[in-house]
Write a structure and sequence with these properties.
The complex is a heterodimer of chains A (856) and B (209). In chain A, 29% of the residues lie in helices and 18% in strands. By secondary structure, chain A is α/β, with parallel strands linked by helices. Chain A has a domain at 718-855: Barwin-like endoglucanases. Helix content of chain B is 20%, strand content 21%. A 4-stranded mixed sheet of chain B has the order 8-1-10-9. In chain B, strands 2-3 form a two-stranded antiparallel ribbon. Chain B has a two-stranded antiparallel sheet with strand order 4-5. Chain B is globular and about 45 Å long. Chain B contains 7 helices and 10 strands. By secondary structure, chain B is α+β, with helices and mostly antiparallel strands. The chains are: A alpha/beta (856), B alpha+beta (209).
């Protein structure tokens, strides 16, 4: 029954969730149907713009394959393309099945419940349910989207989970395996307009990528690189800056990093006996002082000193020496980037950084470093994820372009959200409270100081990765064989939604093998995809145009651009009614919670992690079941200091506009004292502890070789394959319309994409095609030591000569995927999925493969 | 009387196809029909290879060969210089499509929908029921009447399109015509197109013409 108030003609403000960045949109509703949409001109995240995917989402909503009734599996056999033989059942029966199953799991061992989704804003609810139930296994298990390597590095260096280049003040923009401002990445509409403005005023854009991506197509220079070797190039650039050009920001390194800390022969800090603080060498006084001693103004970065009879050197001196191993010629052999290019790029970058320059912002004189590198998935998704990402941003650290105008900015949800603050560790390094804040929402743990190493309890093995914060692919490996990883139970009940690991993780046969081992899979879905084909029960889910969300819908930890601008909070509210009976997955689970008798604990946790606990009038009553609508409205009231929810705010302004950021909120890095590590001293002990624990658990195979204090390039598995028949690497790129698997099934998206020459194809370099006698348009096999896939060749110069590539994730096989089935290629099928692909420091999974290509 | 002109800055276009989608959403065009879309082409050799994104649409030529070719007068020019099609007068002979140097006209043999059984409630219905006719971009004449910009201009995330009255010297279009070096596609057709381009900095004009 349609809500009569929705049978009108109105523009409704809400937030697009076609991908996670959450742009503010307005939707035109007429007679209970969606008839139009546009970016909301009143809200900063879109200012009236939105992307093609967003405009196409109406086709998702009215897709004839929408699931509208609960579906029960009747075929006990599970497998890729095995027909589940769905039987439609009633809602009550579905609820009974779930409750009965969960009761058994709860009585047996609650940790056997696993909840997996990529539903960012409703993740607080997943956390609350799983925790109240007694399971540590709740995470956005979104292997391909988020970066274990990336986020871990950003927490350590910017104190933030995400980063963006400060485009309005940057003159030399390096997009390194990333396309910020060019149709992918966070805050896309903000980024695109800032990038356009920056390029118009003459900023130089350099793109380092195996593929001539959309970003590279607009770049002043495209530097093709072999996938996964970015770290070597980053360190190589650092070497040219430091050892060949002498370009580095000495005062920044001395004050804002631990470059001046004295390092003893054993690799540890030399510490002050009285305070235990790391010592630095004060050149003026000619003696060692604690780094925190105000009088130590001239801290040595170079040289060799003697403290209490033992010789020691500043961390920077060690780093400088260490960087020499990455001379341009050596790096060139690894990365394929010519030495001249490495040297020229380093010089251009270093000179553009204008070391010493300042800028006046709102009365404050701040450093201005208008050059920065930025990376995302392309840099992170490698076996060496942590060090690869760190090495990519190392040039920023050396020239002082971190958290300052013109440089790389961390997102910092402070202001009205109060979610971000950076404090100093006992050793003076960055400790971000954002890890703790987000730990109440998801599975983040602090990256620094290192967590205590313990025997595993979580499927993520967070207990064995004390310096990581985000290990979201690991459960798909550990669930397959928990005993191997010393996990004391085997998962039995998996909920999965808004997440399609069969397509988005490596080798789907390995993922299928894991899914088959779980007794019961509950999927929430609005379409059947390759993953929920494995479900035992599918519960139809409301589209985000049909449901409420928490406020703010633009999760501030990622989706308010850093730098100057307003603080604002967007809403997600239903524009049209869902199909009869269909609702928010969390409302279904809340009823499950009620039947299981865990509502009081669920409510307590929701109160805690939404902040409702701070308001006596808004906090949830422990003994009552609430809907997502009620909770959503209360979170609006909480942040707007209103007694009751006022929808007029959103009708009249599109979003809640709090105020413009203060200088301290816009550029908090300029005002913080905590230091960025250039030397990860704590890795030494953390690695030893992991070694001791894994040995004790009989896991001698666990690799601890990544725990070293200075950046190194570690080859991915693919780089070590010496079978000469596999002479090419695989790589992927996002295209503006091809970001997520869900967009692939949109008929409007498909209609446009199939006309683009490079999309839906296997990009093969001209030289390879000539060698293999492949013509443009031929069908080809791409084969690795794991599998082979067939696709249409596009012979091109727009890919690295040693790489075959594709845009998006094609080659879908889902039985109900009428639009996307069989289009494009699924290169993920070629990538091994086992423990050898894991960066055991950060929990990052490697997406590198080596292949050969030949005519089909 | 206005003289509408569109300028597209190729340096700014990132090939995101928001314009293509916006056009589809605005007019509800059927599968395979794109009044406006973005061509992609690559140039150069690795590592100096690059890709051009070239948005194309009806050029609303002042000397429109389509208008001349139309035997029924279905294709006509509005007083503002828009080249429009009166679908009630169109007999679907496609002489206009043959005459158009820009491949901007789309013949509709049979009405089709993306979801055959459930036409989307999108689009304004301006095309519903018309078969065996030729369609094309109308510069969003209905939106212009309401004082709005064409949809492709409004949605473009980089704001690479400028649209306005070139007779009005204070308009942004006039300013750009004075300050930017613009060019037209297929100048040899000599149709005096009302869609002009600003060059992509990575490429030579001669290459893409």
């Amino acid at each position: 029954m349609l809500n009569p108030t929705r049978m009108d003609d109105a523009w409704v403000s809400t937030t697009c969730y076609g991908c996670f960045p959450s742009c503010a949109i307005q939707i035109h509703r007429k007679d209970g149907k969606l008839v139009g949409s546009k970016g909301d001109p009143r809200v900063y995240s879109s200012l009236g713009k939105c992307c093609g995917k967003s405009l196409a989402r109406i086709a998702d909503l009215y897709h004839p394959n929408r699931v509208t009734r609960p579906l029960l599996r009747t075929n006990p056999e599970k497998g890729i393309n095995v027909d589940p033989k769905w039987k439609e059942i009633g809602w009550d029966e579905a609820m009974d099945i779930v409750v009965e199953r969960l009761r058994k799991v709860h009585a047996d061992d609650p940790r056997k419940l696993v909840m997996a989704s990529m539903d960012l804003n409703n993740h607080f609810y997943q956390y609350a349910f799983a925790t109240a139930f007694g399971s540590p296994n709740y995470a956005w298990y979104s292997a391909t989207m988020c970066g274990g390597g990336l986020h871990t590095v950003l927490f350590a260096t910017l104190g933030s989970v995400n980063s963006e280049p400060d485009l309005p003040r940057c003159n030399y923009i390096v997009q390194w395996g990333s396309q910020y401002g060019l149709g992918a990445n966070n805050n896309p509409m903000v980024g695109i307009r800032d990038m356009a403005e920056a390029r118009k005023r003459g900023a130089k854009l350099v793109v380092i990528d195996p593929i001539c991506s959309h970003a590279a197509a607009k770049a002043d220079e495209w530097i093709p690189i072999i996938p996964g070797t970015d770290g070597a190039l980053g360190i190589g650039v650092a070497n040219v800056l430091v050892n060949e050009l002498g370009i580095y920001d000495r005062p920044f390194l001395a004050r804002n990093t631990n470059a001046s800390y004295l390092i003893a022969q054993d690799g540890h800090y030399v510490r002050d006996r009285a305070t235990n603080k790391p010592l630095v060498w004060d050149l003026a006084a000619g003696e060692a002082k604690p780094y925190s001693d105000e009088s130590a103004r001239d801290q040595a970065l170079e040289g060799c000193y003697e403290v209490e009879g033992a010789s020691c050197r500043p961390a920077f001196e060690l780093l400088k020496e260490h960087l020499k191993k990455y001379d341009a010629e050596t790096v060139s052999r690894i990365t394929s980037v010519p030495p001249d290019t490495i040297r020229r790029f380093a010089r251009e970058f270093g000179e553009a950084a204008q070391i010493g320059a300042t800028i006046v912002y709102d009365g404050h004189v701040l450093p201005h470093r208008p050059a920065c590198t930025e990376t995302k998935r392309g840099g992170s998704h490698h076996k060496n994820g942590f060090w690869n990402v760190y090495s990519i941003i190392l040039p920023n650290i050396l020239v002082g372009a971190m958290n300052v105008p013109g440089g790389l900015l961390g997102t910092h949800p402070n202001g009205p959200f109060g979610m971000w603050n950076v404090t100093e560790s006992d050793d003076g390094l960055i400790v971000s409270n954002l890890c703790d804040v987000m730990a109440h929402v998801t599975d983040f743990i602090s990256t620094y100081p290192a967590e205590e190493v313990r025997a595993p309890e979580s499927l993520e093995l967070m207990e064995l990765m004390p310096c990581s914060n985000f290990r979201n692919t690991i459960p798909l490996l550990t669930m397959n064989d928990p005993a191997k990883y010393a996990i004391p139970y085997a998962p039995e009940f998996l909920t999965i939604f808004r997440f399609n690991p069969m397509m988005t993780t490596n080798d789907p046969r390995a993922v299928a093998d894991t899914l088959k081992k779980v007794d019961f899979i509950l999927s929430f879905a609005w379409q059947i995809d390759e993953t929920n084909q494995f479900a035992d029960l599918v519960i139809p889910e409301a589209h985000d145009f049909e449901r409420w969300w928490m406020f703010p819908a633009n999760m501030p930890a990622g989706f308010i651009s850093p730098g100057p601008g307003p603080w604002y909070g967007q809403i997600v509210q239903p524009v049209v009614d869902p199909p009869p009976g269909v609702g928010h997955w969390a409302d279904f689970m809340m009823e499950v919670a009620e039947r299981l008798g865990i509502v009081p604990e669920v409510n307590r946790l929701i109160n805690f992690n939404t902040g409702l606990v701070n308001s006596p009038t808004l906090a949830l009553d422990p003994n009552r079941k609430y809907t997502t609508e009620e909770i959503g409205k209360r979170t609006v009231c909480l942040l707007t200091n209103d007694e009751t929810f006022n929808p007029d705010v959103f009708r009249d302004h599109g979003a809640v506009h709090f105020y413009d950021k203060t200088p301290q909120e816009a550029f908090p890095g300029c005002f913080m004292k905590a230091r960025i590590p250039v030397y990860f001293e704590h890795f030494i002990d953390a690695g030893k502890q992991v070694r001791a624990m894994t040995d004790k658990l009989g896991m001698e195979w666990w690799d601890t070789s990544y725990y070293h204090p200075m950046p190194q390039w570690h080859p991915c598995r693919s780089h070590g394959i010496d079978d000469r028949q596999y002479d090419l690497y695989t790589a992927f790129s996002k295209a503006p319309l091809l970001g997520h698997t869900i967009s692939m099934e949109n008929p409007w998206v498909d209609d446009i994409v199939k006309r683009n020459p490079l999309d839906y194809s296997v990009m093969i370099h001209t030289s390879v095609a000539r060698r293999q006698n492949i013509n443009d348009g031929d069908m080809v096999w791409v084969e690795s030591d794991v599998n082979r896939v067939k696709g249409r060749a596009r012979v091109t110069e727009c890919v690295h000569p040693q790489v075959v590539a594709t845009f998006g994730i094609g080659g879908r096989w889902g039985r109900d995927k009428h639009v996307s089935r069989g289009k494009g290629v699924h290169l993920n099928s070629l990538i091994r999925f086992d423990w050898d692909m894991v960066d055991t420091l950060s929990g990052q999974i490697d997406f590198c493969a080596k292949v050969k290509v030949y005519k089909a | 009387m206005a003289a509408y002109e569109m300028i597209i800055d190729l340096d700014m276009c990132i090939g995101c196809n928001a314009c293509t989608m916006g056009c589809k959403a605005e007019h509800g065009t059927q599968p395979g029909v794109f009044w406006g879309h973005v061509l992609q082409k690559e140039y150069g050799k690795t590592p100096r290879a690059t890709r051009l994104f070239l948005p194309v649409l009806c050029n609303h030529c002042e000397d429109a060969p389509c208008e001349e070719a139309c035997p029924t007068g279905a294709t006509y020019r509005s007083p503002d210089g828009l080249v429009l099609v009166d679908y009630d007068e169109c007999i679907g002979c496609r002489a206009c499509a043959t005459a158009c140097p820009y491949d901007a006209r789309w013949y509709i043999e049979r009405e089709q929908f993306y979801f055959p059984d459930t036409p989307l409630p999108y689009g304004v219905g301006e095309l519903r029921g018309y078969e065996r006719i030729v369609q094309k971009c109308n510069f969003c004449v209905d939106r212009l009447g309401r004082g709005d910009q064409p949809r492709c201009v409004e949605v473009c995330p980089t704001s690479c399109r400028t649209f306005g009255n070139r007779e009005d010297s204070s308009s942004e279009v006039s300013r750009q015509l004075r300050s930017e070096r613009t060019f037209v596609l297929r100048p040899e057709a000599a149709t005096r197109p009302r869609v002009r381009y600003v060059m992509n900095r990575n490429l030579d004009i001669v290459q893409i013409r």
